[in-house]
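Budget justification aside, the reviewers requested a transparent look at the raw inputs and outputs of the sequence design task funded under Objective 1. We therefore reproduce one unedited record. The lines immediately below are the structure tokens for a 465-residue chain.
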């Protein structure tokens, strides 16, 4: 059990900023906002230009009698965004189409938190159960959550790829065209790419971390720790109340079932109260079934949503890590430029003074001595080397400027992205915990009705004293 001073979700801000005024006919839903021209906010605040509501439903097995069978889903939407040709686009898509959508959104929008998809490598794909109604419904629910996260994002909801995914009647043609002609200018490999790829590695750390992003990573750590603790606790609750297997006899549902059988057997022995005992036995069976039903309709979806939210947070962490890589690019390039400049200054000092480079440190002095032993201490070779260094310095200066501009732009985009993720996280927490609360209320109301129904029957048993 958690201590009183430990808050599992202490990084969640429960009071969302006030939503702007929207037209009365605008649909409502968790996490969806519609910005207007009069909205006030900082330069790093996200801006919504409209709403996009999406649903994934009606899974259908296609080509059922062939080895190429697959499941398609009806994807429908409701929107007022001008990029869409209709306010109610819809299309049928399969899982591979969702995979293509996500992979290309990751490439097209590297600074955005792209939500994860459900893992395809599951036991159902090996055992042949991926066409079972239970699996298809679970997959539909996960795809629906993925698309809702995309559709509530102010940048992704307006992307041409998402629009084509929702309304294109020639989706496969659009897929091939998108691969052949990706949006935006294709970056050319240059000095910055070659250097950063060489210098950057998993063990390098940012030397001058930004306090804003340090705080963000700390909040992410706390949030994920809370999710992990909740997942462990609710898995314990699930295993103790109902593990989904009525024959396991290792949970409360099995215990109540066994108790019902025992009470029913007692009814055969106590002929005077057989009917009340049978009613009591039936109530125990109903309560056992109610526990199992609550596990399937409330506990399991809650645990699935917890794990999905954890994977979503991992995607957010990846964006923060990518921003750190941009800063590492800038820091390493700056150090490289400083080293090349120092070498050029050393050569210049040697040429001007013809007396070594004692003023530039012991390392420069030793380098001069090594060059002298190799016969490379003549002025002509030094001048030629300085010329090459000047060219490299110019390239590095341009690369450092580009890296700095890239870092600033990516940092600003990351700040906006954190606000978007915060809105989405709060909305999903509200939805997830609200669903859990509703399920628990429904369970206890139904349980109270069952037990209150049996009380008058038990009270009618006459006991002679």
């Amino acid at each position: 059990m958690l201590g009183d001073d430990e808050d599992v979700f202490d990084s969640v801000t429960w009071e969302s900023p006030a939503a702007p005024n929207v037209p009365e006919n605008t649909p409502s839903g968790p996490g969806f906002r519609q910005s207007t021209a009069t909205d006030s906010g900082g330069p790093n605040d996200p801006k919504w230009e409209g709403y996009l509501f999406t649903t994934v439903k009606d899974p259908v097995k296609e080509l059922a009698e062939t080895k190429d069978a697959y499941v398609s889903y009806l994807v429908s939407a409701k929107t007022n965004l001008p990029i869409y040709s209709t306010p109610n686009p819809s299309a049928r898509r399969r899982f591979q189409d969702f995979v293509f959508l996500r992979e290309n959104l990751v490439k097209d929008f590297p600074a955005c938190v792209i939500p994860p998809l459900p893992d395809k490598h599951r036991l159902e794909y090996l055992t042949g159960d991926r066409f079972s109604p239970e699996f298809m419904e679970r997959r539909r629910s996960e795809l629906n959550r993925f698309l809702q996260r995309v559709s509530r994002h102010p940048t992704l909801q307006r992307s041409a790829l998402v629009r084509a995914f929702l309304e294109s009647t020639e989706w496969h043609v659009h897929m091939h065209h998108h691969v052949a002609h990706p949006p935006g200018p294709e970056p050319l490999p240059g000095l910055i790419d070659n250097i950063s790829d060489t210098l950057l590695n998993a063990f390098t750390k940012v030397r001058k971390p930004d306090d804003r992003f340090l705080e963000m990573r700390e909040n992410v750590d706390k949030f994920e720790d809370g999710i992990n603790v909740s997942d462990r606790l609710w898995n314990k609750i699930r295993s103790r109340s109902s593990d989904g297997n009525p024959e396991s006899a290792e949970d409360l549902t099995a215990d109540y079932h066994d108790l019902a059988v025992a009470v029913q057997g007692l009814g055969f022995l106590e002929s005077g109260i057989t009917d009340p005992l049978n009613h009591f036995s039936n109530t125990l069976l109903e309560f056992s079934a109610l526990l199992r039903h609550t596990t399937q309709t409330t506990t399991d979806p809650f645990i699935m949503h917890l794990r999905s939210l954890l994977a979503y947070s991992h995607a957010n962490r990846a964006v923060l890590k990518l921003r750190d890589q941009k800063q590492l690019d800038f820091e390493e390039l700056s150090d490289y430029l400083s080293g090349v400049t120092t070498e050029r200054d050393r050569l210049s000092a040697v040429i001007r003074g013809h007396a070594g480079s004692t003023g530039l440190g012991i390392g420069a002095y030793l380098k001069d001595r090594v060059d002298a032993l190799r016969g490379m201490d003549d002025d002509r070779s030094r001048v030629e080397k300085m010329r090459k260094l000047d060219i490299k310095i110019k390239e590095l200066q341009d690369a450092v400027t580009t890296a700095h501009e890239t870092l600033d732009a990516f940092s600003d985009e990351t700040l906006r992205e954190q606000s978007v993720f915060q809105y989405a996280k709060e909305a999903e927490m509200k939805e997830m915990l609200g669903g859990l609360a509703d399920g628990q209320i429904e369970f206890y109301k139904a349980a109270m009705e069952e037990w209150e129904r049996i009380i008058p029957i038990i009270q009618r048993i006459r006991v002679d004293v």
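The radius of gyration is 32 Å. The longest strand covers residues 52-62. Computational costs for records of this kind are itemized in the attached budget.
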